[in-house]
Every structure is written in C-alpha cells, then in structure tokens.
Write a structure and sequence with these properties.
Structural class: alpha+beta
Distance between the termini: 76 Å
Strand content: 5-15%
Number of strands: 23
Helix content: 25-40%
Largest sheet: 8 strands, mixed
Shape: globular
Number of helices: 22
Strand order of the largest sheet: 1-4-3-2-5-8-7-6
Length: 744
Amino acid sequence: MSELFDAVDALVASRSPLPPVEERKRLRTAHGLTLDEVAAALKVRRATVSGWESVKKPTEPRGPEREAYARLLRQLAELYPAPERPAAPAPAPPTGAPDPTEAGTPSTGRNPKPAAMTATEDTGTPAPAPVAAAPTTATRPARTTRPTSTPRPPGAKKAAPAGAPAGGTDPRFDNGPLAVVDVEDGKVLAYCTGGLVLDVPAKSIPALVDWTLREARLGQPKLSGPGKDADPLLVLTEAALERYGLPVTLTDEQRLAGRIPENHKVVKQLARADWRLTKRGFGPWARIYRPATGSERACVQLCIPSWNALDSRHWGYAAQLPSAELARVLGVYASRVMTPRGSTAVTGLELMTALHPPTRASEPDAAGKRHSEHNPGSLGKDPVDCAPCEAPDGHPLLKDLPRFHVRGPAEKLFEEAYDWARPMTDAECTLRYLVGIDVNMAFAAGANGLTVGLGTPTHVRNPVFDPKLPGSWLVDLSHVDLSRVKVGKEWAELDAGLLPSPFTPKGDRPTGPAWYATPTVAYAQELGYEVRPIEAYVRHDNGRYLDGWYQRLRDAYLATMADLGVHADMEPADFLAAMDGCKDRDPDLAIVVSAIKATVKGGIGKLRERPRGEGWRPGEPWRALSRPTWRPDIRAAVISRTRINLHRKIVKHAAFTGQYPVAILSDCVVYAAGGPSPLDFLPYRNGKPLPGGFKLGINPGLVKHEGTQTVLWGEEVRERFDAPELNLARYIKDGTVTDADNGE
C-alpha cells in the first residue's frame, strides 16, 4: 500500500496549485530573491524560472520541481500577503502623465531578441516590494512601479542581482546611473537598474530632461575626489522616440552627419527651453545641457540604440534587448566601469579623465577663497604638442613636407601590434594541430605600471638612454641578433629565423635607425645589447597615469567573468573547462565582457584619434587635437610595452621548449602542437607554469584558449590563397577564411 500512497502523493504534487505568474514574480522580488538564486535552489536553469514568471510566454513547472516551487511560493505568500486592491476603478494617472488616448500613442516598439537568445525573457533583476501608496501598482499588477515623488516605505530595499547595484549610497542617485525609457500601454516608463520602473510624466524631450534632473534621482558619484559626478543617462527605445517626435532611424544623410538637422522640431523645442547641445548636435549620443551654475548639475546624456549608439561589434545584440534587460546590461557596465559617455572608445578615454581630473581646488588664499589649479598626475586642461616623429600623417607639424612624401622609420614613430606569420617547418607539419592562445586584456596589462609622459617633450641630441624616462628615441637596433640573446641572466641560443623581430609590427629585422618608444629600446638592452640613441624627445614630467584606469577595467573584467563562472584562482584544466561555453551561461553578461574589452582597446586607440571627415585637409588641425587626451606618445608606449611583453614570453618559451610561434596577430599567438589543447604545448610542471612564460588564467596578461584547427587546415588555406605566410592567427578561432589576408 505504501507504494500506492507514494504514487498518489506524487500525482498530487505534480499538479500542485501555483499562483498566477504575476504573483510568482511579486513574491520572489518581495523577498529580494534573484532568478539565479531560485534556479540554484531548485536545480534548474535561470531561463526555466524566468519562463515560469513570463507574462508573455508562461511555462509551467512539472514533476518534483513543481512541488518544490509551489512550496517556496506558499512560504513566501505567508510572509508577503497580497495587498488588498480596491474594488473601485483604478485612479487616474498623476497630473502630467501621458494620456493613453493621445493620438499617435505607439505600442512598445521593441525589436525581438534574436532567436538564439529568446530563452531568457526576464532580466533576473527583482523589482522592489510594492508600495501601497503608489496608485500605479493597482493598475499594473504585473509590474512594480512607483512615481518618483512617492517615498519608499521605511526599511524597504531595492533588491538587485549580483553585480548590478541599483544605485550607490549617495541619495541623489538613489535610482541608479541610468534608465531605459520605453512606452507600454500608452504610458512612458523608465526602466532603471535593480528592476525599478518609474512612471515618466514628461510629454516632450525638454520636459524629459527637466524631469530627469529634478525628480528621477539618476546619476553616479564621481570616481575621483576633484572630479565630477556622472550625468544621468537616458536610453530611448524606438517607442520612446516615436512618442517624443524623433525619427526611429536616421536617413543615410543623417547617419553620415551623425545627427538630425538643426531645424528638426525637437532641436527647436530644446532651444526654446534654453537647453543646448554640444557641437556634435543631436545624434546617437546627444548631450543636452545648460551652463553649470555653481555645483548644480544641468546635463543629461542620451543614448539612442536604433541610431546605432550601441555598436554591435562591441555591444552585440544589446540594442534588441527588452528594456529591463538592457537596463541591466548597461547598469552592470556603468557600476563597474562608468556610465557610458558615448562609444566604448569614448568611454575608455573619459574614464582616464574621470580618474585623473585636469584641475582641483587650491588651498584657501588670504581671503579664504579657493581657485582652480592643475591636478598633479593629470594631463591638465590644455593640449600639448607632440613630437614631430609622433605626429601622424597630415598633422599640422608636417605641413611643410612635400605633398606625396612618405616618411620612413627614421622619420616616424611606428609602434603597432604584431601582424606576423611564417611558413611551417617540416617538423611542425608532422604535428596534428594548430593551437591559438590569446592574451587577456593585453593592452590593459601593457598599461599597468607603465610610466608615461604627462607634459611636453624635450628634444635631446645624442642622449644617454634611460629606460625609466618615457619618450621617443631615434636609435639603430639592427645589430640585435635574436640567435643569441639573454633570457633572464643567461645567454640562450635560438633559431632567429623562426622568431619575429620585437622591434617592428611585421616582425622584420630593422635595417637602420628608427624611432621607438622607451619600452622597445629598453627591451633591446634586456636582450643583452648596447643601445646608442642619436636623438630623442623625452618627457621629464611623467607618471603612472594609467594605473587607476587599468585597475578599474581589470576589476570590472574579473568580476563579470566571475559572474560567468570563471575565477582568477582556477587550476589550468578547470580554467579551460570553465571558459568553454562561459558566454552561454548568461549571454547578457557576455555583452558586458565584450564592452569592457572594447573600452580598453578603444580608449588606447582614441589617444591618437584621426580626422573624421568634417571637411578636413592635410596640414590643418582637426577636432581631436584640441583635447588634452590626444596623446599619440602614450598610445605608442602602451602598444610598445604590450608587444614587448608578448615577445618576452615567446622567447622564454622558445628557450625552454624549442617551440616557436607560427603566427601572431596582436595578442593571439599560434603554435603547432601534438594535441588540441594549450596544455599540449605549454610547459606546466606539477601545475606550475614556466616562470616568465605563458600562463593560463583569466587575469590580464595571462592567456586563454583562442581556438584550434588542424595543421592540414592551415596548409590547405595557405595553398588555396597561394600565401605561404598567410596569418593563420586571424582565422584560428573558428577556421573560417573568407578572403586572402590583406593585412587589414
């Protein structure tokens, strides 16, 4: 009989009654539980729990999961009884709220997420407990909202998922750094971080800006003592664009101009309300401001995804995310890096300035007043001239050169990342695999601890080289012979024909004097060779300007990778296993990882931004030159050190194992190996890597597995394109080769 009773109990449990989906979510969020926490307790996927709460496409739990889920909800219902709802009709929206019957009210206007990503409908960001005083909660039981004027009940907290705080301790920014503005059921809503949704009463863009600054409590505290708080960021969905009279997409002409025309009605509305736009106008990352009065903030940043504000190369499918999920993605990025100020490249540069503001308040003078003064360790508020050798082609310093003159290595500093490859040896062709390894956050690691110039350069003839002095040096390094170099304190014999030169991006051995950044020249000394510079442009005012920048981006990267299940203290095999498919564990957080890495590369590249149209002609200044952060010397130093760091590991590996790289592209290195894993050629002993060589791990400067192909694949590709030195590192990730390698 007991078996029959068990069967009956199981049958009853399989049909355990569950509350409506709206109530399920209310109970979870009231207790401050995230989707991940519930999924872990019930031993199901996060997307499964999300489906149980989805209003649009609900799914029902089955079997033992249903019984456990019903038990959880019953206990939560005892702790958080459903609020009594009045029988009378729902009250009217607050004064000033958009009228749902207003002509032209659009639907939500969202783009659906790509099919591969539709498994995760909910963001996992719980909303705060319902506020009884908020009239909107009675009219929208599926969502917890509150007008910005309604105070939170005593003791109530906004729950937020790990890594996505809904604001700092500063009460001015209680609702987080940003909001995604959308329109649903005729109402304008602002989706904030932490799952909070605000009602937006504004009926125009000027009113929206005013509401944001006066009521929304959005923004982010400054990152440095003398710095400035981050302005609030509003992300406008397509539905919001339609509601506020803006185009959903830009025309080709507007896209090329990067803005809507100045005679657009919304631009005129802003002007009539005494709001201003920056010189870039009303574009994908518009900044709307009034001149500051004292310490009062009067600027709002807009982000318009459908105008390509979120470049898919760096933000993936973020522009297609539902509003709550987009708020989560951008909120995690904002909390760990900073509130986006534009593209990832722009944000990378702005982060440098936010950590080292150009000015600070002085000590009080005799009258007790403080004045603005230079902030030590910063780049200051005024641009500085670069050295002629550091100037890119077309720079005003070079306007007297003949029109079609091509500068050679003795005239131009050319520090760039590797793009090098060689034919495989007969021995390598007998192996089965080509294995690519990739340096994590290579340019960030190159910036860590690097001394760079802060002020103007000093020109010196016949200088004595100082490896601690940042600058650009004209020196002949053609005598450095890689067949015999110092590795540590010992001389090592190497096959120089299988190694790239550390002094040129293409790996060619220099043939005479050339301009190099300090890390490159210092490495020649490290290899055991004397260096005698002919001349130099050195910077005596210098410092480790990028250290804080590196540390913040490193921490952001490591924290987000940890959320994806990859931690800094893993054993090599565990690390490789954790990396395999880590992006599928939370595709939205994988977007944040991509954006963080793009912030590093883009920020370094922005230090030498080139002209971007605008009618520029060679020899004339362009807009970027007016920035203190236009510093091609700093960019060159970071790239130089990154390339040298990689070469040092390659030499150490070759001296110890006799293995040489087949191809290198920037921070990716390809080796021939007997097996498909990096552990098949990296010399680990008792779990310990080769000191000074490649080490598997997630920290910046360590390496991960980039991809594996067969040696036969490599030979076939090179034969197909009749290119014995085709750079296989460019295609090692997935093996797809679409065209011959042109070096771009």
